[in-house]
Design brief:
One of its GO terms (cellular component) is Golgi membrane. With about 230 residues, this protein is mostly helical. It has five helices and no strands.
Length: about 230
């Protein structure tokens, strides 16, 4: 805005334009810083980025300039008759200052949001990793239970197999005893047959068996007669 004589620009307008240029620079710096923050560990402070220090310095400088502009406006408002500046101009300048403050607030909000988003992303990743680990642990526990059941079944089968083996061994021994007894009986019968053959002076086995059978029948009948 020009002064009354129009020979030079109003210092307030110069200061306002400087703040406007610095805000544009600040927004560009913030874009670079936020892009770099995405590649850094979570909770990394802005000052640790390549452009972080410059960003903070520019932001602080702008806030100081805005405070100075606000002081000028407050001074003019308190003595408007002395400075002879129209109310419309004062209101426009106040609106510009409010706009500057809103932009600075937006910069601060985006900085906080970037940090919060990075932390939230890491938290979600950690939660997902913990969930996967818990799922794997549950699967391993289930496999352990199944292996325990299989081991118990295998032990039971082994015990049953041993019991069956013992029983078969016992049965085989009993069969061996029966076979031995049968062989011994057969030997005795053969010996008896030979004696009978000598006694009867015959070598005909059929005749011998017939004689033995008839003798047994006679003995049985005799016992029945005696008993009854």
């Amino acid at each position: 805005m020009a002064t009354a004589d129009g020979s030079r620009r109003d210092p307030y307008d110069e200061a306002e334009n400087t703040v406007r240029r610095n805000i544009r620079k600040l927004i560009m710096l913030q874009s670079q810083v936020l892009e770099e923050l995405r590649t850094l560990p979570p909770n990394t402070h802005i000052s640790l980025t390549t452009k972080g220090g410059e960003l903070l310095n520019v932001c602080n400088g702008i806030e100081k300039d805005i405070s100075e502009l606000q002081k000028v406006i407050d001074t003019i408002k308190s003595n408007q008759a002395k400075y002879r500046i129209p109310s419309k101009t004062i209101n426009q300048r106040q609106a510009t200052i409010d706009e500057f403050r809103s932009k600075i607030k937006g910069v601060h909000d985006r900085n906080r949001q970037a940090t919060t988003t990075a932390t939230a992303t890491v938290s979600c990743s950690s939660a997902l990793a913990q969930h996967q680990l818990q799922t794997q642990k549950d699967l391993l526990d289930q496999q352990d239970v199944q292996l325990t059941v299989l081991n118990t079944s295998a032990q039971n089968l082994h015990s049953n197999a041993r019991a069956i083996n013992v029983e078969l061994t016992s049965q085989n021994a009993l069969l061996d005893d029966v076979n031995s007894s049968f062989d011994e009986t057969q030997i005795r019968l053969n010996a008896l047959g030979k004696r009978m053959a000598v006694f009867l002076e015959t070598n005909n086995p059929s005749l011998l068996r017939l004689v033995i059978t008839l003798s047994v029948i006679a003995i049985v009948l005799l016992m029945i007669i005696i008993v009854f």
